[in-house]
Amino acid sequence: MDNLNPQIYLINTPTTKQEIVKYLVSNICTGTALNQEEVFKAIIKREQGISTTLESGLSIPHARLEGLTSFRAVVAVIPQGIQDNYGKNIKVMFLFLSPSGVQYFPEHLKLLAKLAETFTTAFIDELCTLKTTKEIAAKLPF
Amino acid sequence: MNEDTTNAQNKSKVKSVVVISTAMLTFITFWKAAAIVLCDFGSSAFYAGGIAYNAFGPAFPWYILGVSFFSGLLLMMYLESCSMFTRSGVFPVVSAGLGEKAAQLAASALLFDMALTGPISGLSAGNYLIGLINSTLAILKINFSMNPEIFSMVFAAAVVIYFWYQNVKGTEDSSEKSAEIIKLSLIICAILFLWSAITLALRGTVKLPPLKPQLTKEAMGWAVNIPFMQKVGYIGVLIALGHSVLALSGLETLAQVFRELEYPKIQNLKKTSMIIFVFAVVFTGGLTFLAALIIPPADIAKYSDNLISGLAMSLKGPTFLKLLLQAAVVFAGGLMLCGAVNTSIIGANGTMNRIAESGILTDWFRKIHKKYGTTYHIINTICLTQLLVIFLSRGHVYLIGQAYAFGVLWSFVFEMVSIVVLRFKNREQKREFMMPFNIKFDHFYIPIGAGFVGFIVVALAGINLLTKKIATISGVSFGLILFTIFYISGRLNAKKANIMFEEGPREKLNETQVPELNKAFENLPYKENILVTVKNADNLYHLEKVLTDLKDSEINIIVLYVRPLENWNAGKDRAGTSVDYKELFTQVILKAENFGRPVHPIMVNSNDFFAAAAQVAFAAKAQKIVMGVSGTYGANEQMEYMVMAWAALPEKYKITAEILWPGREVSFKF
Fold it and tell me: What is the pLDDT of residues B354-376, one digit of tens each?
């Protein structure tokens, strides 16, 4: 999990949650056999369940996909914040895909736990003050 | 930290922590349950023999011993009824078996029994006390004696008034005191047995009392005009048993105490019943028999109101020691009899509350005391009735004894017949215990044993109707008055009764707001905790599973409901998402009661269920969070968010989360 090496994006233009998800999905699928449309649908389906946004400002859109054999992730830092459907202010979006096999589910849960533990309100506030993706990458423990 | 961050942190914090409690969240051991029953049931040992002696002469110990053995069969019938209904007793069992009208009649009979139990026990305690005082005065050669009737009347009234006050205040758990009283009674019983054995050995010969009852004209009642009933054969035996049956009063307490019995309930009820049976045979039957063997025949009439004192004073030995033993008998007997007064008030209040729960009684009866939260109108009515009986009897225990058996027997008749009827009516209902001697035919267990017990009580009740004039007249009058009250009250309350029927009975919940989460767990009895979240009264499978599977009884089960709010500041419920928490917790408490395991309900306000559950689990230092599966989301999604919510806490430790639903579970330690 420590070798996740997520691609990092700094988003400074006003936009919506859906647009950012779409943008991140297109990037995470680049150079893979993954179908961009299907991945987007799987993530939105999961988002329609229990919201993946925490009070700290971290949103974790994710999906468990068949055929995947390893975890893949991308991160977007949104210093100005965007509102989700439940009125929560999203400042960091960590989008990841995990293999759907039962044996991967404990790892999947561990990643969620690690994200919730790492991205505290203070840590997110600190990330939002950084000016480049390089500076952000240096701070992330992945 | 900016404004958004502060708002986010405030939003995730749980608000308004409410600890829910009811009288029914603690459970007692089989020994304490037996002690509570025996304080009522066993106390009849102090007066049943004397009353039976007055009715049919020296044969009385055989019949008291006979009904003591018969109590074993009745206890088995109670075991079957309790295995069907956790909130057992005459009213629910007869309601299910014979319908509500029959249940009202049965409850009227039981309430008649309870209305007399207080006075007869109080008067009997007074008789024992005045007997001791007069014996002491006579030994000290002080030429003064008090009128036993007036003394007993004043004493009994004082006891009823004392327990009226205690019950209005809401008596604390009395099982500890009951256990102490029974221990003391057993010690005195052992001394009496030993000393009696020595006395009989010193006398050399033992003359057994006659088997044939000598029925007085009064004991025959209306049957004196029926020629074939005057021949003392089987009918005479039944008449004598009918006069002895008051020794069985108080068995109903077993059904009332069952809901308080700890896990495993039925196994513990079997142990409770065994203790009660042995006590009935040895204490009630045995001591009455010894009294008949040892008290000189010429003195039995003198001691008929305090027979066990008579036994103590008739033993061979120094007068001083005998007086000391009599004082011990009076002390233990007094405590037991006074305990029976209290049990009769508690029992009558419980029965009236069961009736009220079905919507028959008007709000006037159900009125809750503003300060103490007790149903004080019901308690006042019971105690006033008991005081009236004490003054009408003018202190004569025998007079009440004549009326007493009516309520005992007719409540048995309704209950035993209902248990037999339920074998056919509710043949699919699970019974952890079934009265023995059954013939399996198709889907039925034809109840030969239960039918036999039912037949005996019906026969005894029928005979008593003819022979016990006072009992029949007073019992029927009292029953009719109560039945009329139920009828009128039921009509006045008809609309509300329908609503209550649809909603089901609600548990009386005490809601205590605590300033912070930690305070909610300060008084939990054990160190280890499990948190069980609940949301839907119809989806408590996971709670049942925890109550069934938990091996270690020294773990607190905290049951959490997270009440969603739309607007923190206004504190308004979010429409459509908040459930009826009173109904939810009523079902939670019923489940705990069914298993005999305590739970600790708590309710917090939060719009984030998982964050609230994590905070509560952390504050309680719970080792495990158990959830039911959501009807809207999948178990995996629930687990994902639970994991995130726990990880988001500023401080944490390793915890296990479980999501349980029939046949499956998802578990994760993180």
Answer: 788 777 788 788 788 888 878 89
pLDDT of residue B500: 52
ipTM for the whole predicted complex goes beyond 0.90: yes
Ranges of H-type helices in B140-261: 148-169, 175-203, 217-220, 227-230, 234-244, 252-258
Is the pLDDT assigned to residue B574 strictly greater than 50? Answer: no
Which whole-number Å values give the CA distances from B514 to B92, B396, B599, in the listed order?
36, 53, 18
- Tokens read off for B289: 């028999």
Those of residues 611-640 in B touching chain A at CB distance below 8 A are 611, 632-634, 636-640
Q: What is the mean pLDDT of chain B?
A: 88
Radius of gyration of chain B (CA): 28
Supply the pLDDT for residue B498. Answer: 57
**Mean pLDDT computed over B248-259:** 90
Taking 70 as the threshold, does the pLDDT of residue B326 lie above it? yes
Three-state SS across A45-86?
HHHCCCCCECCCCEECCEEEECCCCCCEEEEEEEEEEEECCC
Interchain CB distance below 8 Å, B640 and A108: yes
Number of H helices, E strands in chain A: 5, 5
Residue B353 confidence (pLDDT): 83
- Token duo for residue B396: 């004569």
Contact between B670 and A113 using a beta-carbon 8 Å cutoff: yes
Whether B211 shows a pLDDT value over 90: the answer reads yes
Q: What is the pLDDT of residues B11-41, one digit of tens each?
A: 556 767 888 877 556 789 999 999 999 998 9
For A114, nearest residue in chain B (alpha carbons): B647
Q: What is the mean pLDDT of residues B269-279?
A: 97
Cα–Cα distance measured from residue B301 to residue B53, given in angstroms and rounded to the nearest whole number: 8
Per-residue pLDDT, averaged over B268-284, amounts to 96
The rounded percent of chain B whose pLDDT value lies above 70 is 92
pTM of the model: 0.83
| Short-list B638, B618, B664, CA closest to B517 | B618
What are the sequence ranges of the domains in chain A?
7-139
CB contact under 8 A, B643 and A114: no
- Which chain A residue has its CA at the smallest distance from B639's CA? A109
**CA B263 – CA B246 distance, rounded (Å):** 32
Tell me the Ramachandran region of residue B528: left when phi exceeds 0, alpha when psi lies from -120 to 50, beta otherwise: beta
Q: How far is A88 from chain B (nearest CA, A)?
A: 8
Residues 6+ apart with CB under 8 A from B491: none
Instruction: Specify whether the CB–CB gap between A11 and A78 falls below 8 A.
Output: yes
Cis before B209? omega within 30: no
Residue carrying structure tokens 């895909």:
A97
**Do B132 and B322 meet the contact criterion of CB atoms below 8 Å apart?**
no
Which domains are present in chain B? 3-20+508-669 (3.40.50.620), 29-489 (1.20.1740.10)
Query: Which residue from A50, A105, A121 is facing B5, i.e. has the nearest CB?
Result: A121
Architecture of domain A7-139: 3-Layer(aba) Sandwich (3.40)
User: What CA–CA distance (Å, rounded) separates B404 from B157?
Assistant: 18
Chain B neighbors of A121, CB-CB under 8 A: 1, 5, 8-9
